[in-house]
Design goal:
The chain is mainly α. The protein has one domain. The chain contains 4 helices and no strands. The longest helix is centred in the first third of the chain and has 35 residues. It starts with a helix and ends in an 11-residue tail after the last helix. About 20% of the residues are buried. The model has no long low-confidence stretch (mean pLDDT about 85).
Length: about 150
């Protein structure tokens, strides 16, 4: 039987794994965009592809384990109420809206030549990672439903 403390530690660990994966994806995407902005014919280095791929794996594993662990907990503890759906949708919507805004701002800065050195802006990446993690938490809370109990059908 899973305790609340155990659930929180596991979910925190899965959020860290997913957040690291998300950071890898965002860094690789912005770095490749900057390389193309400086020289459109330049070939992207292999390590960018590897970084994005490894980040996608970490992100998907972290989210999948977070959803399945929370679903298992809610199956064991049927008396536990989750966050209201409107609050989860508010987290998702706010996170996606803030991320879209940050992408517009960073793209405008790239077009204006603010990143002439070709290095991604770590502050913008951390902001994007934070707001997407906020949206991801809302998504996990929406998707984690109690598992169906196996048994004879009437």
């Amino acid at each position: 039987m899973m305790t609340v403390r155990g659930l929180l530690w596991r979910e925190f660990g899965f959020a860290i794994v997913a957040s690291i994966g998300l950071g890898m994806v965002l860094w690789g995407a912005q770095r490749s965009q900057l390389i193309r902005a400086i020289d459109n014919d330049a070939s992207l280095p292999f390590h960018l592809y590897a970084t994005i791929f490894a980040g996608l794996i970490a992100l998907s594993v972290g989210v999948r384990l977070a959803i399945s662990t929370l679903s298992a907990y809610r199956t064991e503890h049927t008396d536990v109420r989750g966050l209201p759906a409107w609050a989860s949708w508010l987290l998702v919507g706010a996170g996606v809206a803030l991320f879209a805004y940050s992408v517009l701002v960073s793209t405008a800065a790239i077009v204006d030549g603010a990143y002439a050195d070709g290095r991604p802006n770590v502050g913008v990446l951390m902001f994007q990672q934070a707001v997407l993690t906020m949206a991801g938490v809302g998504g996990v809370l929406l998707l984690a439903k109690p598992r169906a109990q196996a048994g004879p059908r009437a």
